[in-house]
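Subject: for your reference before the review

Hello V.,

The reviewers asked for a structural picture of the protein, and I figured it would be easier to keep everything in one thread rather than splitting it across files. Below is the amino acid sequence we used in the manuscript, unchanged from the supplementary table.
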Amino acid sequence: MDPIAALDASAARVVQLVGQVDRSQWSRATPCADWNVRELVGHLIATMLGHVDLLHGAPASDLATLIQQQALAGGNDLLTAVADAATAVRAAFTEPGALERTVHHFIGDVPGSRLLDIRTTENVLHGWDLSTALGLPATIDDALADHVYQYLAPRAELLPSTGYYAPPKRTPATDAGVQERLLALAGR
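And here is what came back from the structure prediction:
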């Protein structure tokens, strides 16, 4: 799957899901133990905007600050905020040379192409978290799940040590679909 197409598909799913949140659902728990639905959406908005900043030369500390303020990200109109953030992050990744730029992420200096993989991965996994929390069908398009799985699988042994992924809770069956393998790999 083309990386920009993967970003577009993953962001569209996030925007669609946020559009389905009923006001009474903001405080629902999510599979991300420390976040409710409102905080998870704030995290998505904050990291999208933070990735725009990183692509424009901001230091990693700016992203860390945005993430710490995530519960406030988006204000009162979260659907508009997440849609605007998705548009902004797409525009930043499609700027000439964006994928070749070195960005200063808190995991270290990485090329913009790797930041794009990180962004898409966050959208896909947190989109699954959000749909699960809302009681909606928690399905990931197979091509998108495969795209993210191909990014994460070579890093499987390191994922839990980053603090961003739980250790796998189960081993998927050998004939498991790509979504099941991805979710197991990501500790969900």
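For the response letter, the relevant points are probably these. The longest helix spans residues 112-134. The chain has eight helices and two strands.

Happy to draft the paragraph if you're swamped.

O.
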